[in-house]
Amino acid sequence: MNQNTSQVILDFKKGDINGDGIVDFVYLFGNKPYGNGSPFRDNINLRIIDGKTGKVTAVMLKQDSGYNPTLFLGDFTGNKADNIFIAIDSGGSGAIAYYYIYTLENDRLRKIFDFENFNNEYQYEVNYLDNYKAEVISKANNKRYILDLTWKGQEYLSEIYNENGTLKEPISGWVDPLSGLFPIDFNRDGTYGLYAMQLIAGRYHADGLGFVQTSLEWDGQGFEPFLQTVGVFGENYIS
Hints:
By secondary structure, the chain is mainly β.
């Protein structure tokens, strides 16, 4: 197989990264190992060129391969300088994605969000209950959510419930790692927070029950949740 391993620009943005009032230049570089016929990219790395001095700051990403690598610049910490938000799709059937946020302070690049840390911290239990319900327990913030499963329809319910609404056997589901992370200026003050989405799966991955939706904001040390909800899928409504 003829592989093209030359580094190319995958995305580019301009912004004031170090807060000196001068525009800096931010690049994602990477390889196209299978040529232009494939959207897969690897050896993805971040490079920042200081607009004042021309100094280059570079870092390889821990998860440095995937699809559609993109940049977003915005102030997440409230210090009036742009931070660097990186998103890379895994390409897997679960629509999982990889996310990093970096800040540049005193010529030192620091990672302030890592998708793996988030996934490790936000753990859940998903259990089917009697009477056509399921519970989602969020261990990170000690919250419990109850889902109504009747929208799934009689055929689905009859496979797992007796006629009296009791479970035929215990069933557990799970919550996916991050499948969506979106910068949002919740307070319209120029400082961005994060809106995270994680799929709730039932008996198998395509058996989606809804999404855990977590809103986070910077507290000076890290991104902390200020709101978490569960969004459910709607059933067809006939008036």
